[in-house]
Amino acid sequence: MITFQLDHTVGSIVRDHPALSRLFEQAKVDYCCGGQKTLDEACRQRGIDPQRFLAQLEDYAASETASEINIAELSLTELADHIERIHHAYLHEELPRLEKMVTKVAAVHGEKEPRLTQIRDVFLALSTELTIHLMKEEQVLFPIIRQLEANDTLPSFHCGTVANPISRMEFEHDEAGAALAQLRQLTDDFTPPEWACNTYRALFDALLTFEQDMHQHIHKENNVLFPQAILLDQQKAN
Ligand SMILES: [Fe+2]
Ligand SMILES: [Fe+2]
User: Fold this and answer.
1) H helices within the chain, ranges in order?
2) Global pTM?
């Protein structure tokens, strides 16, 4: 039986048991940017009974499928590859599609629902930021991490230690997290109004999937890849 403690951090629980991210999503407990909080703190902040939630986590973990890939067991290079293959590829494909949808829905229904214009503006700004963010990870940070793992000696980086670009990426994750929270609020938790057309509904549905994928993506970087890379950097420096 897998057991958890209330003083375990939310990020460490999802790192070791990725399938549990679904329960955190449902309970709206932030496990990516807020991953350093203990389970107790995070539940109380959301007004959830910590003991009850802990029991739900343990039940779910017990039934967790063995096929779920355990990212904690991957090497740093494998994890960086996995993040690019799954989450970056998803964003490269989905961001342009969502940009078109959100622009169209705001143009057609913005008069009846003025928040659609805000939703469009928040999304387009986030999409631009994310495109640059992905490029920095793919062209700068991830190659550094792969090099760090492959070399016995410490490679010399133009950006000092690996902690520098990582702290910049974490800052950008916080900003993305804030924009996602704003989208959730502006869309009434991604619930379309009764009168919404199919494109409107498809947009909100796609935004919800986008939010969930972003949470998983940021979690894998903030709580697994980045701390392990910093640790490895420190070990190689000694
Ligand atoms: Fe990423
Ligand atoms: Fe990132």
Assistant:
1) 10-16, 21-26, 39-46, 50-62, 76-83, 89-109, 115-136, 142-150, 163-186, 198-219, 226-237
2) 0.79
